[in-house]
Write a structure and sequence with these properties.
This protein has 555 residues and is of the alpha+beta class. The chain contains 18 helices and 13 strands.
Amino acid sequence: ELLTLASMAMETWLDTRLGADVTDHSIFAALTQHWETEFHKDLKELNVLPTDVLTRVTDYVPEIVDYVQKIIDNGYAYASNGSVYFDSAAWRRDRGYLAKLKPESVGDLDALAEGEGKFSDVNSKEKKNQVDFALWKSSKPGEPFWESPWGQGRPGWHIECSAMADSICNNQLDIHSGGEDLLFPHHDNEILQAEGYSNSKQWVNYFIHAGHLSIEGCKMSKSLKNFITIKDALKKNTGRQLRIHFLSHSWHGGLDYSESAMSEAVTTEKYFNDFFLLVKYHKSSLGEGISSFTKLTPLELKLYQQLQECQKVVHNALADSFDTPTAMRVLKSVVSDSYTYLSAQKDAPNVRLLIQVAVYITKILSVFGVAGSQDNIGFASAGEGSVSTDEVALPFVKALSEFRDEVRGSARELKAFDILKKCDNLRDNVLPELGVRLEDRELGDPAVFKIDDKETLLREKKQRQDEIVRKEREKVEKAAARDKAAKEKLEKGKVSPLEMFRTAQYSAWDDQGFPTHDAKGVEVPKSQQKKLKKLQAAQEKLHKTYLQHISDLEI
């Protein structure tokens, strides 16, 4: 345990003392491969699609060396003492700028130093200008190195991105993304390198810079002890719930991770899921053939128009810089519209219209990586294939639910309470284990059945049980508090109102035990007498209650 707690301090100390002795590349490779594997596991849990091409810097060192050499050949870089630096003066002379994305930061040496980390030394005599940055850096003892025309070294902080991207995308990117903290110097320097390599005027068409993540309103950092990993977050919430939280915020704005924010995401997930389950329930009674198509009533026409408006707003929102918050808000709104329609049209609702709404919502949530498939309604079940397990199970669940309705009806007539309890047990304990939600309605109405996620149902069941335990505990605590208060009142009522003021605080009393003079013989002021009379009147009531209690015990 001591070694675990002291690991960070010991790692720093050992690296300082012995780091220069490490020359085996496999040590560095093993570490990076481990975290690369963990990273892709996290991506899978978040339902992030796998990449088409995965590039690793260690695989592309020859390409990076050639890339740097061509920038030198084009006159925009120079070698110095085993390192290679981008020649900012030469570039400014030919192009007239040093930063496209954040030109106001040119010359900000602190930002340059922070952006380059260990590669940075703004006052290094190796550089012609302070704003020149490393394309290739000579390695110090204990650092990874590769052979190059300039000696043993390693790629600069920015060059690896440009070289690997160009090797795959042929010197032209349509969209390039990253955090907003990478605007300058990282992405601006990437542009200089790439355009210096190809002599082009525009390497990237569109940059997308995402906002920062905060934890409970504070910047995430180890020093604040509010650091949370994706794995930690997935212990509390599902990948779907995290994605819903992300979708509720603009990609370029800040994102706050907190319990309250995740609670909203869980509520949103449940809101959609309940609607999907309800539509599936109604779908089970849908007839086949064209006879199931009927003329739209005014209520149905209104919902149909609301769906069309929803589709229009969602399309425009996504076309406006991927405005997912607006899209999610409008999707929830059309669910609300559907519930309004159902409440007004309780008997024989237009199931095909409800299916249209559910299918569209599923389609958009599928695009967002929240729903599993556009082919089925709602969220995918674990292991669900091309045929929905819901569709296979629904006829059997429907038959069971209808049979239970008949049994309950007969049991009520016969007042067979044991049978009613067994029906409740089927609903509350047996079916949730099978991933079936059964909801009884008003007397005479058939129960509503839904295929749901087993874990969700069991979690809700536990929450209900915990709530029952909490209420029972609260009931016991309140009863104990009442008993305690009653005992304290009885204990206080033992003192007679005639005796309560006969203390050293006073020196004279009337025949009712009311004090007339204080300990020094001074008459008690009238203002104080009023307060004392109220206290004596209250004590008289307490004493009467006490005497009655004693009398009741004797009886």
